[in-house]
Amino acid sequence: MNEVIFDRKEYKTYKDFYVQVYKDLDGKSIPDWEEYENLNYNADFLNEFLWYCHSDNTKYIFVNFDKIKIRKKKTYDDYEFNLILKIFERFVKEYPNNSMEYRNDEV
């Protein structure tokens, strides 16, 4: 199983996440997505893009994503990350050959 790690500390905004997910899931190699290096920072595009990766058997690891804080949606980034997390949670539920894990390295 492949592992893809997303560390919240590495992103200034949710837009940086979209750039990384495209790169880490090799979006350039998917003909329908060659031109979308940032998925247009759009949750609907992310949802569709993940479908192309549904048979990859990937473990998505989210480090330092505080779901409780994010779900309160105090900032626009929280709002966007909440959408992203919901998309990934639904994705791994629909395609159980993939999995998702939350880790926190902050004490």
Summarize the structure in words.
By secondary structure, the protein is of the alpha/beta class. 42% of the residues lie in helices and 16% in strands. It is built from four helices and three strands; from the N terminus they run βααβααβ. Strands 1-2-3 form a three-stranded parallel sheet, covered by helices on one side. It starts with a strand and ends with a strand. The mean pLDDT is 95.
Summarize this entry quickly.
The protein is an alpha/beta fold. The protein is 42% helix and 16% strand. The longest helix is centred in the C-terminal third of the chain and has 19 residues, at 76-94.
The helix content, as a percent range, equals 40-55%
Number of strands: 3
Q: Approximately how much beta-strand content do the residues carry? A: 15-25%
Order of helices and strands: EHHEHHE
Global outline: globular
For the largest sheet, list the strands in their spatial order. 1-2-3
Roughly how many Å is the radius of gyration? 13 Å
Distance between the termini: 28 Å
- State the major sheet: 3 strands, parallel
- The number of helical runs is 4
Report mean pLDDT, rounded to a whole number.
95
- Show unreliable segments: none
- The structure class reads alpha/beta
Q: How are the secondary structure elements laid out?
A:
Blueprint: E1 2-7, H1 14-24, H2 43-51, E2 58-63, H3 67-72, H4 76-94, E3 99-103
Parallel strand pairs: 1-2, 2-3
Helix pairs in contact: 2-4
